[in-house]
Amino acid sequence: MKNIITCLDGSAMTSAVTSAAVWASKKLDKPILFLHTLTKEPQHGADDYTGAIGLGARSALLEEMTKLDEQRGKVALQLGKHLLDNAIEQARVAGIQNASALQRHGELVDSIADMQEDTRLIIIGRRGAGHHNNASALGSNIETLLRKAASPVLLIPEAFKAPVSFMIAYDGREAADKALQRIIDGGLLHGLKCHLVSVKNNEANLKEKFTSAQQKLEAKGFDVIASYIEGNIYDSLMAYQRTNQIELTVMGAFGHSRLRQFFVGSNTMKMLEHSKIPLVVLR
User: Fold this and answer.
1) Residue 27 falls within a domain, yes or no?
2) Distance from CA of residue 207 to its chain's centroid?
3) Among 32, 85, 125, 230, which residue has the fewest nearby CB atoms (within 10 Å)?
């Protein structure tokens, strides 16, 4: 059975990420796999001081630093295990019995890639442990993950509550229709009020495609509010999100249209940095 891969790093949003995993597990009827990775931190060795100290002293320092690295590694393993145990307990209290944990050495994105065949959804905090004092900072793995992940990615802000509405930014291109179909087939967003929003662009027959998208969603039982708007993409979507109190945004990733360029590169980062609600990114 495919898992909901839930990435934990001990940051302030760990509880919110775990709550999101519980919500997704209940919606999709899929097990949770809590993942914690240990990345080796580069250390400055005694070799940095070549010529300043003697060979014997340098060898002694290297041996001492090796011992310190080993101790640091043991502590990191223990902290990671404690983090994962707490997450499983939080999920259990919330009614999830099918939850497991995995701790690995290496890069987070590589670990996720290794499990891609068994992944239904990836959940990760919008910022990591190294950015606890910067609310707009993004975790270092976010952009790489969005570019490489084959599964949908759910990004979580500082707090999470089960959403009752979501917004789809639709641009009429093939990738947008594929994302729309994934929403229809997926199950995660069923039962939520759907705001289908399109910002006018140069795509041929956009209005007709927009109407067709609305009809497809409604035919599958979605309660749809359709809004065809004009203006600057970022400003228009953010204003719509605020005015309508949207609780989750769905975006497609990677393409060449103006709207999809908005969700890639600097514009993607701008959206992620300023959004206060969860985001689902679909490939």
Assistant:
1) yes
2) 31
3) 230
